[in-house]
Structure formats: C-alpha cells, structure tokens
Write a structure and sequence with these properties.
Elements lengths: L1 H6 L11 H8 L4 H10 L3 H22 L1 H7 L1 H22 L4 H10 L35 H9 L1
C-alpha cells in the first residue's frame, strides 16, 4: 500500500495480466467458499490454515514479481503486480475477518472499502477497479519482540 501511495499516487494501477498474474488471481476465486465451508463444519484450524496458505502465496507472488525492480525497468508490469496485490488483499480482507477482525477493519480502510458491506463473502473476490483511490497505509500487525514473547510465555 505504501508502494502504491508513493509510485501510483495512491490509486489502483492498471493491469495487463500475464500467466503468473492470472494464476495468483485464480487461486483466490474459490478461497472464500473453501474457508466458509470449513468454518461451517467447525474446521477453524483448517480454515485458518487456508487463510495463511493464501497469504504465503501472495507473499511469494510479490517476491517473484519484484515490483521494486520492475518499477525501474517496466512500470506497466510493476503496476500489474500492484493491482494483483490489491485484488489479493481485497479477498484476504474478507476471509480474515472471522479470525482477525481488527486487522480486517484496518485493511478495509486502507483499501477504501465500506464496512460492514465489504465483509460479505459473496463480494470477497469482486475486483477493485483500476484508478480507485486507496486509503492511507497502516501497519496491520506490530512486529513482536522475541524477548518479550519469551518473557510473557514464561511468566
């Protein structure tokens, strides 16, 4: 989100999808249904596992596409990468809401989505249009100090 704010004036860039981009997006299409079904069957741990697997796939996509490099050599591809990342975050925002409600609300605000409507599962994969103004980037999760975690676990 910070990257989009800095290099794309805070607006969702245009996308010219290639195979790798299509693969990332297609992996999201049935994610809400899979997670929803697991939740309905009380498979909360498995549902959370699906969420985390989708987040890891998003990180892998981002690392593979290297927008920090393509920004200098191919701005159109960089824009596509960032568009796909926004679409991915849009879906993750909805499906993480049952597990991380406060983070989901922050993510929705950053995407400039209206809560509670943005958390409707049938809307989870609706794309955010290119040119849409995004909100201000925020840190969703504070990095934990390993020493503080160890201290609280021990005492």
């Amino acid at each position: 989100m910070t990257f989009i704010g800095k290099y794309f004036d805070g607006k969702v860039p245009q996308a010219e999808l290639k195979d790798v981009d299509q693969q990332q997006l297609s992996g999201l299409k049935d994610l809400p249904a899979r997670i929803g079904e697991l939740i309905e069957e009380y498979g909360f741990r498995a549902a959370q596992g699906e969420l985390m697997a989708a987040a890891r796939a998003a990180n892998k996509y981002f690392d593979t596409k290297q927008p920090w490099s393509t920004r200098k050599s191919d701005m159109a591809d960089c824009g596509t990468t960032m568009n796909v990342c926004v679409q991915t975050l849009r879906t993750l925002t909805t499906v993480m809401q049952p597990f991380l409600p406060f983070a989901a609300v922050k993510a929705a605000k950053m995407l400039n989505l209206e809560a509670p409507g943005c958390f409707a599962w049938q809307a989870a994969t609706e794309p955010i249009a290119a040119g849409s103004q995004l909100g201000q980037a925020e840190i969703l999760f504070k990095k934990l100090d390993p020493e503080a975690v160890g201290e609280s676990a021990n005492g």
